[in-house]
Each structure stands twice: as structure tokens, then as C-alpha cells.
Specification:
Helix content of chain A is 62%, strand content 7%. By secondary structure, chain A is mainly alpha-helical. A three-stranded antiparallel β-sheet of chain A has the order 1-2-3. With 198 residues, chain B is mostly helical. Chain B contains eleven helices and no strands. Classes of the chains: A mainly alpha (228), B mainly alpha (198). Chains A and B meet through loops of A and helix 2, helix 4 and helix 6 of B.
Chain lengths: 228, 198
């Protein structure tokens, strides 16, 4: 009789197969529509969040850009400055979550996928908004911060106060470094608590108990040289 | 517990809180300009500018200055820049000062240029601080003052202005602005003009 596969091993094998598949699905199927949706969402909220700083989000040569309302200093026919706003990067948390969920054994797979996606969509929007806010601050303040350098052109606007500027820098770090890793993991963990309890934590506990029950190895008796 | 009508009223109040009719019209005008509909955009901007909306006054001035959708008219451009500048609009103040410095559409006046640049420089705007430093260094519109020039250059550098760092480096290299000739300091300041590498 074949022994059933260890659930933890099943999870790892499933993730190894599911994550690339989900990333491919995201890249070729859902990335573009999601970026379009995010652009629409940003356009809807920008009059409230940045009434005097952002006109909207547009696409040029498949790159998403923020169109700034803050006039540039350069005396040219250029009335608008565009700032980079990557809309695909934040959505990568969705395939990461999908891959982990598909790899996790259990019932109601569709429901878990749906709930997790619904939980992550606002996070994706928050990541976009935090990054957009940082781009505006960078353009307005014109000082390099973190790994970002300001656009060549100065904005005809007063710079942000240092505290706020660094705060927006923290927001950018949250959007670019922290949330892409933490958000899909948190969503997965919160939707698979029984699996986490029984398989991962339970497995670890069992392993510790087994290790504790092992009889102590008797100390080696030194060989009697006279017995020979 | 908040009931449904109250929730709706609360939501409506929150939405209205973010609404400024002039700002909305300004955004509409800018959308029209972005799409190349200069006629409609200028008409909306002119109406807003007439009602005292400073960003619209600046934009209208800029359209006259560049001759976009309207015949180029430096005098009208400066008229709108001054209206915006008097409302503390950064663009209006900078452009008006620039016009006085160059004598573009207004009689050349280094003193007035200095005055407007100084207002903006004191509010922390680095390009205006750089212009003030140049005015002190060259005695344009103000008595020549080397130490003031250096102080304003340093403020502009702190605001991320690479030309200010370049000017200070030049001063150290050539022993200008009362500074001793110091090639090492010149290299240090020159380095600040390079974009940050990570």
C-alpha cells in the first residue's frame, strides 16, 4: 500500500508547480486588465487625494504614467510633466497568493481564492496610491531619496517639509518592499489557519515531541584493556 | 449603529468635502488642454482666471507666453503672472521675476526681479534661491554681497539645485566670491552635481 504524501511536501511541490503557472497566467492574461482597472481607480480618487497635483493616469508605449498638474519650471511648450507609476508591479501579489492557495490542500478552493483576492485588491490600490504620493513628493521636493532620483525638471511648487518627505519615503518602502511579500503571505495564512495549525505547527510539535521521547543514549563504556 | 440614510448622508458629506468647484473646472480645462482642445481649455481658464483662481491665471499667462492656442503676447502673459503672483502662486512669482530680469514684456528691472525672487526664495524654493545668489554675486538689483551669495548658494544646494553646487565649485576653483582658491573643495562641490548612484 502506498503511503500518502506528507502534506508539507505536497504544499512545497504544489507551490513549485502552481506559482510559475499563476505568474504566467498573471503576466499574459490578467496583468493588462488589472493595470487598466488600477488606472481607472486612481483617476477616480485623484481629484480628492491630489486636487492640485495630479490630473490623472495615462499610458504611453505600454508604460503607465502619472500626469502632473504641477507646472514644470522649464520654459517650453511642455505644459505637463509625467511621472512614472508602475501599475503591474503591485498586482504581482495576486499570483503569489493564488499559487500558494492552489498548492494548499483543502476544500472550498474557489471560495478561498475569491476571498483572498478581494482582501488583496484594496492592498494593491493602497500600494499604487502610496507610490503615486511618493512620486509627487519627489517631483515637488527635488531631492534624491532612497533609490529614487527626482525628475530633471523642477516643479513650480514649494517642497514638502522634511518630515513629510521622509514619511512618503517610508510609504514607498512599504509599497515596494514590504507589502509585496507580507500581504500575500498574510492573506494565505489568514485563510488557511486550520492547515497552518494542524500541518505546519502540528508537524513541528510532533517532531519536537518525538525528539523528546527518544531514549537517552547510554554513555559509551570504556573498553577494559585487561579483558583482552 | 448608523442607519442607511445617515450613512449615505455621511458619505455624501465626505465626498463634498473634497469638492472645490473652481478646482474641478481647472482640472476640466487642463484635461481639455491635454487632449489638444485649446479653444475650450482657454475659455474655461479665462473664466476661472477672471474670477481670481491663481493656478488658472498662471496657466493662462503661460499660454500667452508660449503662444499656445492664442497669439503670443508677453504683456498679457505678465499681466496674468502678476495676478497669480500677488496670490502667492509659485509659478506666477517665478515667471514674473524672470520677466523683470529679462525685460520680457515688461521694462527690464533687476530690482523688481530680485524682489519677486526673494519672496519665493524665503518660502524655500531652491531655483529662486539660486537666482538670489546670482543676483548677490553679480550685484544685479541688489548691492553686491559675496557672503550673502554663498549663503544663498548653500541654501539652494540643500534644496537639491545642481547649478548652485556647480557655481560654488567654480567659485572655489577660481577663488571668486571672496573664497580662497581651493581645488579640493571645488571637486567636493562638483561631486554634489552628479546624480546619486545606488
Amino acid at each position: 500500500m502506498r503511503r500518502p504524501l506528507d502534506p508539507l511536501l505536497r504544499l512545497l511541490l504544489g507551490a513549485a508547480a502552481g506559482l510559475p503557472a499563476c505568474l504566467a497566467f498573471w503576466w499574459w492574461v490578467v496583468r493588462e486588465p488589472l493595470a487598466q482597472g488600477l488606472a481607472q481607480a486612481t483617476n477616480i480618487v485623484s481629484p480628492w487625494l491630489w486636487p492640485d497635483a495630479i490630473l490623472g493616469v495615462g499610458f504611453r508605449e505600454q508604460r503607465s504614467l502619472l500626469v502632473s498638474l504641477l507646472p514644470p519650471l522649464t520654459d517650453s511648450a511642455q505644459l505637463f510633466v509625467t511621472l512614472p507609476l508602475p501599475l503591474s508591479r503591485p498586482t504581482v501579489i495576486l499570483p503569489l497568493f493564488w499559487g500558494l492557495t492552489l498548492a494548499t490542500p483543502g476544500r472550498a478552493l474557489l471560495r478561498r481564492l475569491l476571498f483572498g483576492t478581494l482582501f488583496l485588491l484594496p492592498v494593491v490600490c493602497a500600494m499604487v496610491l502610496l507610490y503615486a504620493q511618493f512620486q509627487i513628493a519627489l517631483y515637488r521636493t527635488h531631492l534624491p531619496l532612497l533609490t529614487e532620483t527626482p525628475p530633471i525638471d523642477y516643479a513650480l511648487a514649494l517642497p514638502d517639509s522634511p518630515i513629510f518627505y521622509h514619511l512618503w519615503g517610508l510609504g514607498r518602502q512599504l509599497a515596494v518592499l514590504v507589502l509585496p511579500v507580507v500581504a500575500p503571505l498574510l492573506a494565505w495564512l489568514s485563510l488557511h489557519r486550520p492547515f497552518l495549525r494542524t500541518v505546519i505547527l502540528g508537524g513541528l510539535l510532533r517532531r519536537n515531541v518525538r525528539a523528546a521521547r527518544k531514549p537517552p543514549v547510554p554513555p559509551a563504556v570504556p573498553a577494559d584493556p585487561e579483558a583482552r | 449603529m448608523i442607519r442607511a440614510p445617515r450613512r449615505l448622508a455621511l458619505l455624501g458629506a465626505l465626498l463634498l468635502l473634497g469638492c472645490d468647484p473652481q478646482q474641478d473646472q481647472h482640472r476640466t480645462a487642463m484635461h481639455q488642454l491635454l487632449q489638444g482642445d485649446y479653444r475650450a481649455g482657454i475659455s474655461t481658464l479665462a473664466s476661472l482666471a477672471g474670477n481670481g483662481h491663481a493656478p488658472s491665471q498662471y496657466r493662462l499667462g503661460m499660454l500667452y507666453r508660449l503662444g499656445l492656442g492664442v497669439p503670443r503676447n508677453a504683456r498679457l502673459a505678465n499681466y496674468w503672472f502678476e495676478k497669480a503672483a500677488r496670490q502667492n502662486d509659485v509659478g506666477g512669482q517665478y515667471r514674473l521675476a524672470e520677466s523683470y530680469r529679462r525685460g520680457d514684456g515688461v521694462p527690464e528691472s533687476p530690482e523688481l526681479a530680485f524682489e519677486w525672487f526673494q519672496r519665493l526664495a524665503e518660502r524655500g524654493y531652491a531655483p529662486a534661491q539660486y537666482q538670489i545668489a546670482l543676483a548677490y554675486a553679480e550685484g544685479q538689483g541688489v548691492a553686491r554681497d559675496d557672503s550673502a551669495a554663498i549663503a544663498w548658494l548653500q541654501r539652494a544646494i540643500a534644496g537639491g539645485h545642481p547649478d548652485a553646487a556647480r557655481r560654488l565649485a567654480q567659485a572655489y576653483r577660481n577663488g571668486e566670491l571672496g573664497l580662497p582658491r581651493d581645488p579640493q573643495q571645488a571637486i567636493e562641490w562638483e561631486r554634489k552635481t552628479q546624480p546619486a548612484r545606488f
